[in-house]
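FAQ: What does the model actually see?

It sees only this:
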Amino acid sequence: MGFAPQNSMPKKTQKEIDAEIKRLEKCKTYAPHYTMFGGDNHRKIDEQIGALANKLTHDDAYDNYPDDEDPEVLSSVISALDWRNGDEEQTPSSGWDIFDPKKKKKKARA
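And it is asked to produce this:
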């Protein structure tokens, strides 16, 4: 019998998911389109939005984003699903905060 992780946090409500989708859409205004290694940040954000909006499951993610094809996209999608399911505390959009100029200014003042 396999180990089933217990959710330490409740699953997200549709209202919370909708708000997070809006925050992810905003991330595209300040996250660079490409990483210095050519990775497509905007695709990762789009796929996170799609996973949340379309209620993907983990099985869907592994079927749609094979790890050997683009592991960073798969990882981004899994993180969004884990957050939605209450298995991850950090919101998907907070992973893009390092690029937000407003948050950088707040951090510099602290």
